[in-house]
Amino acid sequence: MLGLAKRRPARADRDDRDRVLMRPNSLCHPASLMSSLSAAVFYAPDGYDTGGKRLLGRQAAGEGFLKAVLRYSQCDRLYCYAYDRPTFDQFQQQVRSWGLDPQGIDWLPASDPQSATQADVLYHPAPGLGDLAWRRRLVDQRGYGLCGVTHTTASRAAMESIGQLAIAPVQSWDALICTSQAVRYSVEQVLEHWSEYLAQQFGQRPQIAVELPVIPLGVECDRFAGHDTARGQEQRQQWRQQLQIATDDIVILFVGRLIAYAKAHPIPMYLAIERAAQRTGRRIHLIQAGWFESDRDEAMFKETMPTLCPSVNGIFLDGRDHHVRDSIWSAADIFISLADNIQETFGLTPIEAMAAGLPVVVSDWNGYKESIRHGVEGLRVPTVSPPRGSGVTLAQDYYDDRINYSTYVGESASAVAIDIDGCAASLVDLIEHPDWRRQLGANGQQRARSIYDWQVVIASYDDLWQQMRDRQVTAPERAPVIPGRPAIPTLEDPFSAFAHYPSQILQDQDTIALSANAHPTQVTLLRNIWPNRIGDRNRLTDAELVALLDRLQSGDQRVHQLIDWWLQYHAVGTVNPEVDREIAVDQPVTLRRRLYLTLTYLLKFDIVQLRPGAIETSDRVHR
């Protein structure tokens, strides 16, 4: 249908797509070559947990990254950036479950924009750096670098988060790691389209500041036992006995989610393997290790395989089981993955197969084009998709919510074809030439260790983070915050945005005096009415309020006098030894804000008043 690729290319593909921004394993840096560097990892359990019922590729990648950064990073200090203490506790528990010690990793509360400035880099396990860049702008744009990573780029949320990089306050010391050249091209296309639009709208193309380095996902190569090791041979024998597979039988392995519309449609694989079985006459077993999204999916897979692939023994295993995920590779002779979905960007399982010493047969699709060199580590099967413009209606239906994401990627995948006969020919070649299988498997192991082992990948992260930290010092700041203007245009102080509403704005020269409701009994009555507690967290505490009213008992005060007293109150700890309270150290600007909000609150309930003559008409000029 699509034309066969050469069955045994004389050499590997040597195009630029094979290159990644990595250092060879021999160049892993010693700690002595690294200047002081600290990094914070944005932790949300869903991004790093593979123990749930729905095991997703981003979770497997996230768990692998977190383990690796704890083991191999040369950073002097690591932090956990999480929204609350229970989440940080969960982080510590997860780290301990891996046999690692979380001691020395401090919690940075994500609810505090200032906290991340303790680190040089904040790593986020997703591409959405825009919101984080706006939050950083509230504090200090040079405070730390932002580092994200791509997974799927097909969803509307992912596309929008990438597009935000064209207008968000990202800096040249920020980076969005692309796990493959394929995904980098997708990201660049989105940013190019945004830039073209902004140029049309405003007459000038924006310069996108964020760096787009290519660093692949990694695997822990030592986790996988090759066929030439005692552990691998033992695992092979155990699995084959358990699954009743003879020593000379051929086992083809697929690992991944078993879902036709979101990962890889199984029918091309079934048809190709059946043809290979017919042509070779060998007893073949197909192990599919994964999990089903639904009972409907499970029924489709299990009913379709014996119908379309009757000569092959089908075996389904739960790929969420850690024992299966770690050792099933040893039972196999060939790994296969015919990905056909636009949400695929890298492809981790072929790398795991290479680490296990298996030759791989994959579709010539997405990141597989870069990780698998045709004829060296495995064989790539040609693919074809419709011409540009064929999916305009599909994209519009997805944008308008007439279809959901699963339907969008499923309908897209239904128009991507795999060369079934070419795949069958590749399988036949590997089945009939065991020495070639072993050679490709050995090549794959070497490539996995030199490029995709987590120790190598994390060294590249360290290098990138070091470069980002260095640029924080030397590179010019883009769009610095204008004094007196909101750091986030859509998040203006309400008392600035609506300063034209009131008759008067409280001024430092205004005079404050006690009023009719200043008696403690009346203050307590008013304070105990529940709506009057709204906003308490931004005002003086009850104990501090008592001290303020005591201060006014001695006579009227101008606002600036109360500010001076309030700042001194915090400097000495208390002005009234009988007031039992704890006062946290706070910045003068924040203290002034709290006092202003408290004074107008007291004015609202006639606990204090402005002296006669202080209030002017609405014609007063607002500041």
Task: Please write out the topology.
Blueprint: E1 38-42, H1 57-72, E2 77-82, H2 85-97, E3 106-109, E4 121-123, H3 130-137, E5 145-149, H4 156-163, E6 175-177, H5 181-202, H6 230-242, E7 250-255, H7 266-280, E8 284-290, H8 295-308, E9 312-318, H9 322-327, E10 334-337, H10 349-355, E11 360-363, H11 368-371, E12 378-381, E13 383-384, H12 392-399, H13 405-413, E14 417-418, H14 420-432, H15 434-452, H16 454-474, H17 494-497, E15 511-514, H18 520-527, H19 542-553, E16 557-558, H20 559-572, H21 588-604, E17 608-610
Structure description:
By secondary structure, the chain is α/β, with parallel strands linked by helices. The chain is built from 21 helices and 17 strands. The chain has helices at residues 57-72, 85-97, 130-137, 156-163, 181-202, 230-242, 266-280, 295-308, 322-327, 349-355, 368-371, 392-399, 405-413, 420-432, 434-452, 454-474, 494-497, 520-527, 542-553, 559-572, 588-604; strands at residues 38-42, 77-82, 106-109, 121-123, 145-149, 175-177, 250-255, 284-290, 312-318, 334-337, 360-363, 378-381, 383-384, 417-418, 511-514, 557-558, 608-610. Strands 3-2-1-4-5-6 form a 6-stranded parallel β-sheet, covered by helices on one side. It has a 6-stranded parallel β-sheet with strand order 9-8-7-10-11-12, sandwiched between helices. Helix 11 links the parallel strand 11 (360-363) and strand 12 (378-381). Helix 10 packs across helix 15 and helix 15 (434-452) runs parallel beside helix 16 (454-474). The longest helix is centred in the first third of the chain and has 22 residues, at 181-202. The protein starts with 37 loop residues before the first strand and ends in a 13-residue tail after the last strand.
